[in-house]
Model the fold of this input.
Amino acid sequence: MHRHPQASVGNIEIPPGFQSNNGCVNCTVPSEEGLQVVPRYVRRLGDGKVEMLAGREVEESVYVTQLYLTPDYSSPSAEPMPPWFFQLLCGPAVGFNVLASALYALDQWAVHAEVLRYQENDEERRVIETEVAELTARLAVLQERLDNGRARLEASEVPRMLRNLEGRADIPCGA
Done:
């Protein structure tokens, strides 16, 4: 962290827990004058979010936002993600924690937030895939039960026993 306890910018002291922005966050917040300004003071929350203060007045409102990585499309071609990076990003927690810690230390807040978000989305995808697989298996078992029950009803000639109900499929339930 780059904050000094007694530090100040102009006549405004850096609030406890905050640090000078120094390019960590490039979004804007409203100032007390009604202008949109880049925040002077920021506090990293560790979950991809950041608290921000305009830093123009004492007792300002604190703004919270989710950080997003802004890709640089000026390069003619971005390289595909190398396998080692993808393995750290999507692999076991130990490897991901090494990656996340290294990114946190780089002081690239938006990059760190994007990696955290990717891992969170990947984990949610895995949970949903597991749920879908379980539901698919349950559906297959249920369909097999239905098919077997229909075959038993047909083989037992139950419809022939109740031929007098033919054409009465419109009878309301519970009648």
